[in-house]
Amino acid sequence: MTSIKTENLSFQYPGGKALNFPDLQIGENESWLLTGNSGSGKTTLLHLIAGILIPTNGALTIAGKLVNALKPTELDAFRAQHIGMVFQKSYFIDALSMHKNLLYFAELSGNKADREFMNKLLTNLGIAQLSHKKPATLSSGELQRFSIARAMINKPGIILADEPTSSLDDDNCKRFTELIIGICNSYNVTLIVATHDARLKKEFVNTIQLN
Ligand code: ADP
Ligand code: MG
Fold first, then answer.
1. Whether this model's pTM surpasses 0.90
2. List of domains in the chain
3. 84, 96, 135, 157: which could form a disulfide with 151 (CB 3.0–4.6 Å)?
């Protein structure tokens, strides 16, 4: 349930050319597709919104708070409170069951895991019956559904997903995309999915195009 606003945001890697981003005005509980060719700056923009990178210029406001004015320790706390992330590849510990992986991840951020919330979430994602299994025994589609659970576990207001469907076949791509949009909708989470995957275009009403 978190809004995102950017103004004149730009970022320059050392020795690189400046990346200038369009102004965003993303309302609470909206789902957006962030698209553009490889190298257009999609990952950079997600990392700016997540507070992993600090903009060279411009303003980023999340939930009414000017994020680029925060100190590094405040930024870490802000990210832990507001942002969940999904990546192309899922990152789970091989030796632990999915259930234990999720508990471990929740505790890493200093939160006490809300088990009731987690069990309900796994049911809503259709993966509760897989939660005793270890990562190596699951398909990439199943693992990506657990990645949504991982991103949601600390109850963020925003989920940022970076090329989450690149390793999925058409059926799993569609299923994953419908699921992440549906879950974010029902949990009042603002969603941005960055991808060059043209299969996702028809699933989103709102699009940010980078050139
Ligand atoms: P996308 O996710 O759309 O493929 P990126 O945000 O990864 O785009 O990259 C945008 C531009 O910044 C590209 O030209 C890329 O080469 C450059 N870039 C990305 N990461 C770094 C980095 N760590 N150091 C220097 N240049 C980078
Ligand atoms: Mg990228």
1. yes
2. 4-210 (3.40.50.300)
3. 84
